[in-house]
Amino acid sequence: MLQSFLLTARIGSGEYVSGGEPQVAVRLTFSRTARFSNLDKLGKRAMSVGANDDLNAASHTFTIKCNSQAMGLRFTEQILKDQTRAFRSILESATYDQQGVARFTTDPNAASPSRAEDFASVIRQLADFGRSLYRAIGTNAPKALRDELRDLAATSDKTIQVVRYDANFVFPWPVIYDYPLPKYKTGEPPAPVCLGGMDSAAGNWTKSCAHGPQNPGYCIYGFWSVRHRVEQLVQLGDPLRDDDPYVQANPNAVFIAVDKPDVYTQQMVDAVRQKISAAIEMSDSDDLLDLLWQSQKRPTLLIVLGHLETQEVTGEPSGARIVLQPNKQWLQANDITDRQLDVGDWDDLPRTLVLLMACGSATTDINTLNDFFKALRTAGAAAIIGTECTAFTALVSRFAREVTLDIWDKKSLGDAVKLFNRRLMAERNPLAFVFNYLGDADLTVVT
Ligand SMILES: [Zn+2]
């Protein structure tokens, strides 16, 4: 999808509608290109989904388009909320055990006898859930779209685009599962989970098993965000820009803010600084917003790895905040928006690619993290990579390290995230679904 428009028509009982307002108005609601000057840089999308408001306030319509005409599917707000909540609750319970200890290690070499079965049970749960979402779309879709969905299920490494006309139209697209599932019979052991036959030792991250539309199985490749790239875009602010999908590297290459250094965050900082010598860590005297609002200092990549605090604490600002410097500096969505309103947008390059890695142990409200995404994206960030729920520092540090290095090696944002998902899954850690991004999947850093 390159552009979309909202057509509003006033309808009267007679042959015309009286009054001075226009009777038919067309408004540009989303655009990846204003003057079509960047078409050669915009990659093809296998499928585009627009998530829009309905006239009926309690429901939303997904407009889905592959190659044939666009189809509208209507879902009630309650269904969207329930599904998003159910998805997050699976992720939360896969993150911690009853004692608050991590259920899955992020250490690729750690062996645990119970890990394979624990992993399989979470994957079966996610696949059952993702398949029920896929069925809900399929049963509501016309035949032409069902045919196209089947074609999509038989392919790999495509890009699925989701445009949220309102940033709060969240839906768990990455977990949609389009392979048929094995029949479970009561009393029998559950079906095994397939890792896609990948040869991780050889670094060959392509699917080599037979699972697909005609071959049922619990296979990590059945999930959209493992097999394809799932790009989410939000229409915010001014659509009249021809944004090229790249971030220009500058001398202030990478800025890293870590609130509580530990062995995992240190590994991440060391690896990034070894690769990118211009990477700097936040110090006591730095003010993050001051830095972001000066184009000479604004970094190409910003990595924030901080505790997300929502409780009231004496001496700290109230409301959701990400700790940047303990007891000293916090990041709040409203402060970002206020700075934008008072000082202006990031009109000049670079538009920073932000890795907003919130960690902590509390279950967050669905919109809390989304508020940070929205504020940064509106101010001018090229893309935001974030977490779906809060996670351990071990996991977010590893994600930040591997994705940053891959992006610096000229992999696109979408490929870097997809490859991370495949690596983590192949190690039998199901928490790849914790991460998502708002921005163009083709986005690359130009060094
Ligand atoms: Zn498989």
Descriptive key words:
single chain, 447 residues, alpha/beta, 2 domains, eight-stranded mixed sheet, five-stranded mixed sheet, 22% strand, binds zinc ion
Explain the overall architecture.
The chain has 447 residues and is an alpha/beta fold. The chain folds into two domains: 161 residues, no CATH class; 166 residues, Rossmann fold, CATH 3.40.50. Helices cover 30% and strands 22% of the residues. The chain contains ten helices and 19 strands. Strands 11, 12, 13, 14, 15, 16, 17 and 18 form an eight-stranded mixed sheet that branches. The protein has a five-stranded mixed sheet with strand order 5-4-3-6-9. Strands 1-2 form a two-stranded antiparallel sheet. Helix 1 runs antiparallel to helix 2, helix 7 runs parallel beside helix 8 and helix 9 crosses helix 10. The chain starts with a strand and ends with a strand. The model has no long low-confidence stretch (mean pLDDT 85). The structure holds zinc ion (ZN). The site of zinc ion has 7 residues, from loops.
Percent of residues in helices: 25-40%
Question: Kindly, what is the distance between the CA atoms of the first and last residues, rounded to a whole number of angstroms?
Answer: 28 Å
Task: Identify low-pLDDT runs.
Answer: none
Q: What is the subunit organization of this protein?
A: single chain
Give, in order, the helices and strands. Answer: EEEEEHHHEEEHEEEHEHEEEHEHEHHEE
- Using the coordinates above, name the CATH class of the largest domain: Alpha Beta
Number of strand segments: 19
Bound compounds, each kind once, are:
zinc ion
Major β-sheet profile: 8 strands, mixed
As a whole number of angstroms, the C-alpha radius of gyration is 22 Å
Number of helices: 10
Task: Bin the strand percentage.
Answer: 15-25%
